[in-house]
Amino acid sequence: MQSVFKELEDWNAELRAQFPIITASPELAYLDSAATAQKPRAVLDAVRTYLTTANANAGRGSYPWANRTTALVAQARERVAAFLGDPAPDRSAVHFVSGASEGLRTVARDWLTEHLTAGDEIIVPFADHQANAQPWLEAQRLLAAQGVRVTVREMPYQASSHDYDPARLAELVGERTAFVAATHVHHVYGGDLNVHRIRQAVGPSVPICLDAAQSVGHLPVDVGTLDVDFVVFSGHKAMALPGIGAIWARNTRGPEFAPGGWAGTPNTSGIVSLVAALDWLDAAAPARIERWTVALAARLTDGLRRLPGYELLGCQLSLAVDSPVQQRHGIVSFRRHGTSANDLGFVLSTHGFLVRADSHCQARAGEQEDSVRVSLHVYNTPEEIDRLLGVLDAL
Ligand SMILES: Cc1ncc(COP(=O)(O)O)c(C=O)c1O
Q: β-strands 356-358, 310-312: how paired?
């Protein structure tokens, strides 16, 4: 692990220096990137340049700024498809939305409701983020109102790791299984939920929608190898501005995805920020970002395991990316016996550690106790982890 830090030390220092909010507050450690990521200067500059040189509406005017904005939105669709490894990046495969929540809801309303027929079954991951549960239940309600009854089944989990359970999933899948919603990286446990095994378990013909909110920008997300039908993510978690996100649709299993209704003015400055963020991430190399954040998470989990009184949540760590054992990415959640997560989060903030402490929007909120979540990105350092462990140890 030490070798990853040594090897990538200069790379990390150079990237970290590009985040004005991070360099302006060296006494703080921002450890809440699963909620939203900080923005590199290139993204801030791109938005400023656009707004001060070419701001106009898209698809409406015929003067240069408007034409440029129209072209920029069209090119941004191709950029998103290319970033996701689409071997034939096609602008019609990408649709802009406000974020992952709206993206998943749009797939549910505008595609799933068109796709299902009475008696169909869908599989939903209720222990994941509520954004990946509510839309599918809403689709079920909308269909029921039209007299089309569909059954929602729960994605099976392994209790020990919070990973999906592909063996039980395979048993659950039947002739009427028409759709599976899955998550790439869990937003509390940090585990890679291993989409390959989901595809193997459900067979080649069932559409899968992947919530990639915690993976895009953190690791390579490649639709060339991930055999899924939709990839949905939020720009703000991938270093773009809030209010922009995207749906990528493969459009080969089921009806062509076409969002309904009048979309109105697109979030052009958000789209500009997204393109700049994807360019920045590509230059930084998502595979390196993954190695860095996985190594940071390993340092934290190793340290936490040695501290008495702390309970570490989620998967067992495995660092081999192709290991059959679930891999933990840069998200680590834990509890301290005898201290509420809320209190612990507050104490950590007084020491300069900006973490999240609550139930983290899990779909089955209330069943889970609150926890403190540390979520990492490329601007975090091993020194921050060591300082955090020191403070936790001293409590
Ligand atoms: C796994 C996952 N899915 C969906 C979302 C929703 O993202 P947004 O709030 O950007 O719509 C989040 C946000 O935390 C998330 O972690």
A: unpaired
Range of the domain at 322: 2-39+285-394
Last residue of a domain, one of 234, 254, 283: 283
Residue 103 CA to residue 97 CA, distance in Å, equals 6
**Per-residue pLDDT tens for 22-45?**
999 999 999 999 999 999 999 999
Please answer whether residues 28 and 369 qualify as being in contact, where contact means their C-beta atoms are separated by less than 8 angstroms.
no
Do residues 78 and 195 share a domain?
Answer: yes
Closest CA to ligand 1's atom 16: 187
pLDDT in tens, 41-81: 999 999 999 999 999 999 888 999 999 999 999 999 999 99
Task: Determine if ligand 1 sits within 6 Å of the CB of residue 211.
Answer: yes
105 within ligand 1 shell (Cβ under 6 A): no
132 close to ligand 1 (CB < 6 Angstrom): yes
CATH number at residue 100: 3.40.640.10
Query: Distance (Å, rounded) from C-alpha 227 to C-alpha 210?
Result: 10
Check whether residue 184 and residue 310 sit in a common domain. no
